[in-house]
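Support case: zinc ion complex. Customer-provided input:
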Amino acid sequence: MFTRLPLVLTLAATLAAVHAGPVSAQTPAQALPQPSATPAAVPAWLDGYRDTAGRLIGAAMVDQFAWRRLATLTDGIGNRLSGSPELTRAIDWALAEMKRDGLENVHLEPVMVPHWVRGRESLAIVEPAPHQVVMLGLGDSIGTPQGGVQAEAIVVRSFDELDAAASRVKGRIVVFNVPFTTYDETRPYRSEGPSRAARHGAVATLVRSVGPAGLRLPHTGGLNYAANTPKIPAAAITSEDAERLQRMADRGDRIVLTLQMEAHFEADAPSANVVGEIRGREKPDELVVIGGHIDSWDVGAGASDDGGGIVATWEALRLIKSLGLRPRRTLRVVLWTNEENGDRGGEAYRDAHRAELAKHVMMLEADSGLFRPVSFAITGNDMTRDTVRAIASLLTNIEVDTVTPGGGGTDIGPSVTAGHIPAMSYEGTGDYFLLHHTPADTVDKIEPVDVSRAAAAIAVMSYIIADLPQRLGTSAE
Ligand SMILES: [Zn+2]
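Agent response - structure generated as follows:
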């Protein structure tokens, strides 16, 4: 109860701040603002890009085209799980729309993807008192036998508690009640928890959703079954239901649960990465690649994860094209398939483009939301970081001038690793994990200005990197 309300207020406050406009610096009346210190070394080439950056930012910020495109995708097609007809529709739509935008070399790159189907599912507390429990099966989980699983529950707060209770786990449903801290820290309970419980003889696993406490919102997401461990059905429950089960356990109640899941895999299905380009005017074989993933989980509408990311990166190319700009190198947008439960799109891209990975100057992924505050993250050498910081200084007035280490993404990962390519990400985490993999991931949570800002920032960053006389990460001589 202490965490729930403030988080909702955080979302409201974020939205309110957005309505105040993109530049909402509040300077106390008594203190006149000091001109900010000039960065230690502004490279000579930067001034030549100020006008172009201004035009790109202007074109993005006066228009809500990208947000409307995101609404069209998420309302008109909906969520896009690998193997679903909706994902195929989204891919065909994106292909046609990229052609309409006038992008070049627009095509699909086919790849087979896993086809997991949720089916019907339900969870109830039978003892000590009847309660329906809000749940979502975890992605890639097996189903229960027909008629479901009925068993006594054991509630633990950590892997250590599970191991300490090992002798009491056999034949039971293990409930992991672990509050969300960070995604990386809490996610192992979802991904590894089922097999950790199965190793001690559990018959099913329930995982407190990996996300801040919401209003009884379950978060799905993928699990990873360990090799040579029995596979058991696994589902996410809400923080409210996890805490209720915890209270029952703390009182010493015998807790009996009934879980039914029809989840199963069908045969792999055809899918594709969607690719569009603006060919480089001088070095067309050198590439700057940006994008996100077009697939999503099968709940909500995949608006933040990752509709926003694909629309914003795609919009960057549309803006550059619409202003008649053509950078020295080729700019390529890729909408990868199957990020959520397989990464087959990212792997297929690496394999199809292996011969030109050495010509990839930079890859950028946008898959962390578009919510303020936003930043760019970069993994690369010192010169790469300096160049990215210098370009980001052109984005101060739209508040995208923060650059942090640690750029990367699931879709670009295979190529980045194989080709030792500088990796960037657009980070707009804000309330992302409140909505992540939930039925609430819908376009109404995303402000048009945030999509425009992302498109503007990514357009400026990727255009300049593609146009610089020197290759990113090498000296300007
Ligand atoms: Zn994602």
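The chain has a mean pLDDT of 93.

Case will auto-close in a few days if no follow-up is received.
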